[in-house]
Please model this.
Amino acid sequence: MKQIFIFCSILVLFASCKKDDRPLPPVASANYTNGLVVLNEGLYQQNNSSICFYSFDNNQVFTQAFFTENGRGLGDTANDFEKYTLDGKEYIIIAVDISSQIEIVEANTLKSVAQIPLFDGANAREPRRIEVFGYAAFVCSFDGTVSVIDLTSYEVVKSIQVGANPDGMVQVGNELFVSNSGGLNFPVYDSSISVIDMTTRVVTHTIDTRINCTKMIVDSENEVYILSNGNYGSIESALIRVDAQSHTVIEEKEWPITSMTQASDWIYYYDGDLKAVRKFNMLTEEFDSGIVIDCNSFETFSGMQFVQELNLIFCFDANGYVNSSIVRAYNLSGVLQYEFSTELNTKKIIFND
Model:
């Protein structure tokens, strides 16, 4: 929830005055292949989002890589990035929320090729999540829109109205499912999913569901699983299952899920009560009773991501939000493979081969 994140950011900002938590200085440029490109959110309104790179060649972290390659910072509160290929060349597109900018860089050099402001007049749209479909990027923003960006001209060609504060997207065929959290309207959250035809670029369906939905996953049977965060009090978090063909809610399961990622037909999720990663089978619709990763040693568990190319789950420890994050890599059985330090509040990673 965004308002909770803002509040926590303000608190930890005061706490940080007692620590030397300034970003590490830039290092010499690296060859950004055979490793992990790491997106770091930074702190809200501190304009210190960053990208660093973990090299498999020498197990070294190259800090402030975006700054090194472009001579400027990335902006304020980077939320998401995606890699895509256009005409045989790889790029990374980045959503920078508070700066209300879309940044596009060459994947292997991290050099910027385009900056695209996302504003409605003087009002910032605040981009949150990105999905690439063909030659277009679909970007949901907290102002209640999904912007369509032409990736050949770098122009915003359409703005599609959805629900309040969309904060999750997933593609099923040529349809884009968008979860509307209503997070900024606390305590009156949104409880809808907007479905966009990515060819015609119009909303075709609106699905009524549980409040405050964010992260979305689609399985091999084209069923969409959605994390409903509840209201962080009287309404518990839940896993929602939606049939993508009929656009109807099939099932709701209340469960203490705060983060999740997909590995084949399994959802690996963070159980906030147990402080552990557990898993759910999307084919049998059953929660596994065991613990995959015990995270009680984490200072601040802040997210997780399965990287298919490496067949590893990466868990992020924000380390109190004011220190360098720690990224830990586990196999699917939960055995630690390696770990490394990054920068402030790691959000997502991309494998560059």
